[in-house]
Amino acid sequence: MTTKAPLASDTLSPSRKHHEIEELLIDAEADDDHVQQSHPVLKRPWFLLFGLVLVALNLRPALSSMAPLLSEVSNSLGLSAAKAGLLTTLPVLCLGLFAPLAPILARRFGSERVVLGILLTLTCGILLRSSFGEVGLFAGSILSGASIGIIGVLLPGIVKRDFAKQAGTMTGVYTMALCLGAAVAAGSTVPLSHYFGGSWTLGLGFWIVPAVLAALFWWPQTRQRHGQHQAAYRVRGLFRDRLARQVTLYMGLQSSLAYIVFGWLPSILIGRGLTPTEAGLLLSGSIMVQLLSSLTAPWLATRGKDQRLAILLVMLLTLAGLYGCLYAPLNQLWVWGVVLGLGQGGTFSLALTLIVLRSRDSHVAANLSSMAQGVGYTLASLGPFAVGVVHDWTGNWSAVGWIFGIIGVAAILAGMGAGRALYVDVTSEKI
After folding, report:
1. What pLDDT does residue 188 have?
2. Mean pLDDT score across all residues of the chain
3. β-strand pairing of 2-4 with 233-236
4. CA–CA gap between residue 428 and residue 431 (Å, rounded)
5. First to last CA, the chain
6. Domains in the chain, start-ordered, CATH in brackets?
7. What is the pLDDT of residue 138?
8. Can you state the angle between helices 167-195 and 133-162, rounded to 10 degrees?
9. What is the structure's pLDDT at 180?
């Protein structure tokens, strides 16, 4: 069976758009309804939702917990700015490099079992990073980034499959959990290290605890689809499609700015005169604000004829917040941190929304998600690395403003293409 998605030139009229989106979200569930009725775990949706939230909460602490302690870790281990930049780059690079493994592993073992296994590898990565010196620091960062990259591809599909009629709301809850995990880790890692006697290793290692808890609560989900056959589809033409490339570029470029913030914003703020605790709290507060815009931005964006205006608005807010944190007077930093949070919560949630809106069916959406995250996160890793290199060359933070501007303008240009109300032009065939 071969089907061809509408051409990218086939636009969606405003009167059809919401109906088409609902069809897309429900289509992914059509073949699984009978399974949901027969498995007791699926009769407890709140238990499944709680498990999803716990897993999502663990997809950012390994990234955002390092930033407030980066100066202390670098001084303790004698890392240069270039090595520190590599340390912030490696996990993001692994998000992209290992994302394509997710659908392969899911077809072989099932999504639920893969999530459980990868939660355990994430735990091992955090342990390595916090307990075995410089080698463990880099090896653990690689393992943590790889684990997060695989789980991050699988969770949206589980959300759409098991919450068909509430897929939009559940995706918002999932995105909020991501932001909350990042915010809590950014704000509490330094105080935790002080509580444990000033040990940065224990401050970083603490995040083993929520990962283990998530694995324990997720374990019952691994039995719900044992032995179930799932039809496989091959989608052709994504990498040749201009719209798919624009969606991927937008995902990667906005993610690059996000991971610059996760990896370097506290160091920038410390360089400007804040204490590590103050810098971590400002990053945490900025990420907490993302909870608001991550829910409202997609809702507002789908009320217009396309998403270009929404993308432009959130990108301008992001750039304003970045430049404010870099150059504004110290007594205004919290204002610009809030602006930054409003912008970045919207840019990330819109990137996820575009994957759904630009896909004609769930099979195309799954493959576009893998492409956008795999290629996009690999591209995103260049931003944090560039910040480290530029700081090492210049000895100050002022010059990184050029990096913000170049990435931000490129993201706006990609977003103007990705935000058009079109479908990607691909073929989908059952295999």
Report:
1. 85
2. 81
3. unpaired
4. 10
5. 8
6. 2-430 (1.20.1250.20)
7. 92
8. 160
9. 86
HEC assignment per residue over the chain: CEEECCCCCCCCCHHHHHHHHHHHHHHCCHHHHHHHHHCHHHHCHHHHHHHHHHHHHCCCHHHHCCHHHHHHHHHHHCCCHHHHHHHHHHHHHHHHHHCCHHHHHHHHHCHHHHHHHHHHHHHHHHHHHHHCHHHHHHHHHHHHHHHHHHHHHHHHHHHHHHCHHHHHHHHHHHHHHHHHHHHHHHHHHHHHHHHCCCCHHHHHHCCHHHHHHHHHHHHHHHHCCCCCCCCCEEEECCCCCHHHHHHHHHHHHHHHHHHHHHHHHHHHHHHCCCCHHHHHHHHHHHHHHHHHHHHHHHHHHCCCCCCHHHHHHHHHHHHHHHHHHHHCCHHHHHHHHHHHHHHHHHHHHHHHHHHHHCCCCHHHHHHHHHHHHHHHHHHHCHHHHHHHHHHHHHCCCHHHHHHHHHHHHHHHHHHHHHCCCCCCCCEEEEC
Residue 215 structure tokens: 């694995």
Whole-angstrom Cα distance, residue 84 to residue 79? 6
The answer to whether 343 touches 316, Cβ cutoff 8 Å, is yes
Q: Phi first, then psi: give them for residue 424, nearest 5 degrees.
A: -70, 150
Gyration radius of the chain's alpha carbons: 21
Place of tokens 């990234």: 63
Most confident of the following: 48-52, 134-138, 177-181, 235-239: 134-138
Q: How far apart are the C-alpha atoms of 267 and 184, rounded to whole Å?
A: 18
Confidence tier at 15 by pLDDT (50, 70, 90) = very low
Report the alpha-carbon angle 73-78-84, nearest 5: 60
What tokens does 393 get? Answer: 């060359």
Provide mean pLDDT across the span 305-318: 94
